[in-house]
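[Backbone geometry]
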Amino acid sequence: VIFRLLIRVVLIARGVVGFLFAERLAAESSSHLAFVDPFIWFATVDGVLALCMGALALAVPALHGFFVLVAFIDGLLLLAAAWSLRIAPGIPYHVVALLLYIGLAGIFALCIGLLKVIAARHLQRRFGGNTLSGALGLAGLASVALGVGAFFLHPTPETGRWLLMAGALTEAFALLVAALLPWAISAPESAP
């Protein structure tokens, strides 16, 4: 019970971080350079929280499997994105490097989004329709949309800002829903 409560606290923290990131983006000027510091902050904090959520989920047998895997992959990818901008701060200054970074970020967002949708479907099949699987599926669709948008929308700073804000707000909403509403999951029954 304590681990489920702690997972909910981490979900709330991740939701708040997503809202704060969207708020910082809304206040920034329309320049790719203006997004770097808020993104590094967001990716670092959210990445650490995702890893914490994965570690806590290891103590909840009902969440073993895809949920834990997705939390760890999500956290590692977010930390890698932040780390790459910290060690190579020149990326936003070079058009080719920036486009490659956006392309890789799009691929990672698409992949993690698909994994979240698969994990949500797995939870739904295992426990029936529930808040956790629905919220995870919504967060996955937001990541997929962000990944697809990175490839098909013109990479202007304004487009990037709105895309990041929409993704952050959708995922933050999904995380808060998952944290605040009851989950209809229970530990799998053990065989006699």
